[in-house]
Amino acid sequence: MAQLWGGRFTKETDQKVYDFNASINFDKRLIDCDIRGSIAHAGMLGRQGIIPKEDSEKIIEGLKGIRSDLESGRLSVSPKYEDVHSFVEAVLTERIGDAGKRLHTGRSRNDQVALDMRLYIRDEVKNVDSLLKELLTVILDAMEKNLETYMPGFTHLQKAQPITLAHHYGAYFEMFKRDRDRLSDIFKRMNYCPLGAGALAGTTYPLDREAVAKELEFAGVTLNSIDSVSDRDYLIEFLSALALIMMHLSRFSEEIIIWNSNEYRFVELDDAYSTGSSIMPQKKNPDIAELVRGKTGRVYGALMSLLTTMKGLPLAYNKDMQEDKEVAFDSIDTAKSCIELFTGMIATMRFNKENMAKSAMMGFTNATDAADYLVNKGVPFRDAHGIIGQLVLYCIEKNIAIDDCTVQELKNFSDKFEEDVFEAISLKTCVDKRLTTGAPGAEAMREAIRISREYLES
Asked: How many CA atoms within 13 Å lie on the side-chain side of 1?
């Protein structure tokens, strides 16, 4: 057993207790953050005269050597240590002697791990944001190419009104854009340095907390030492943001699964992002979309787990808070892999544009426009609504679209129908005359795309 405490104890910790208490098997991924924080702390201790300058310099060189050896593989994290902090300090002391024992002056593992987690999560917020930007770029590229790819818009999973694929994709663009906004907000709130809070009540050493914060690129320092070590609200916020990202990915995945079905055939997934069946040779399954949909629950679970862990904890630090790491690490890994694979899947997906347009026609998505046509001819809206309802029933019985009817057939329902009705209820007309901001019309969509492109390039 290798631990940073024990002077007050008269017997060894039971091995099972030690193993249960230890966190090194999962907090080892914090080691680079731990070293970054320790280098900044050691430099400050030397500048403040809290430890000899030569010891400060030896500590910094020793820490850089440990980092270099870890990166090259000459050194690996040993599970015999309780946590990543004890591992770094032990290796450092072994390499540079007693000077290594001065590193922990003026800090506690409580503010040390609080710093490590903030550094780590701050980096991961940036990583997730970068992946979302790639996804948004793929979505926007598809929007630009599909301004005239007509398809049914849905409510209640029933075909409702005609839209374009660009318009449908644009809805997800807005969702993922808001996800990036949330990440930006989280970054701003969490970007304050907790180092110097000590165990909970600060320290008697004349630390320069502001200098450490500046070196580590924080916006400033935390203003309450108890809060610094005893809350993980920034992490809960991040897991909440990841849950929302996964919810949006899951909804998109569900639609792709539906569009990929034999009944719809709107899309064809690239072979690289599909799998087959062990028994049915004709199958081409949308497994990536299904796994993204499935893994969403896993990320939700992590959020609920951490909320439940934190809900009853008195101030300040409690060992329960060690449970923040495994769920956070798993959620981050899961969300990042889902965003990355989903982006690749939709970037390589092919659209069956004829099937999409035909589905819009046979789904009577232009029925509202047919009613509007009659209204423009002087028919009261309620009467027009009833006439088109009867016309739709007629078309269903004959298995045709409204556009397939002759003018004479249409006149059987209203003498207001003329040849110009076919232009009025064509998919292109139905879509393009909707020009309000946010609508699917080509003019409105071009403006939305222009604004979105500027957003991505800013």
From this structure: 17
Residue 413: phi and psi, rounded to 5, are -105, -30
CB neighbour class for 397 (10 Å; exposed up to 12, middle 13-18, buried from 19)? exposed
Confidence of residue 27 (pLDDT cuts 50, 70, 90): confident
The CA-CA-CA angle for residues 156, 159, 165, to 5°, reads 105
Of these residues, 72, 156, 278, 458, which one is catalytic? 156
Active site includes 426?
no
User: If you compute the radius of gyration of the chain from its CA atoms, what whole number of angstroms results?
Assistant: 31
Using 50, 70 and 90 to split pLDDT, how confident is the model at 275? confident
Question: How distant is the alpha carbon of residue 95 from its chain centre?
Answer: 41
Give the chain's largest Cα–Cα span: 101
**Mean pLDDT on 233-242:** 98
Please confirm, yes or no, whether 156 is among the known catalytic residues: yes
Burial track 18-44 (b if 16+ CB lie within 10 A, e otherwise): eeeebbbebbbebbbbbbbbbbbbbbb
Residues 6 or more apart whose CB falls under 8 angstroms from that of 144 comprise: 166, 449
Task: For residue 384, report the phi and psi dihedrals to the nearest 5 degrees.
Answer: -60, -40
Tell me the two tokens of residue 328.
Answer: 């956070």
Query: Model confidence over 360-413: pLDDT tens digits?
Result: 988 899 999 999 999 999 999 999 999 999 999 999 999 999 999 999 999 999
d(CA 163, CA 159): 11
**Residue 378 burial (C-beta neighbours within 10 Å; 0-12, 13-18, 19+):** exposed
Active-site entry in 277, 278, 414, 426? 277
Give me the domains of the chain, ranges plus CATH numbers.
15-105 (1.10.275.10), 110-205+216-357 (1.20.200.10), 358-457 (1.10.40.30)
- Unique residue bearing structure tokens 């209640």: 156
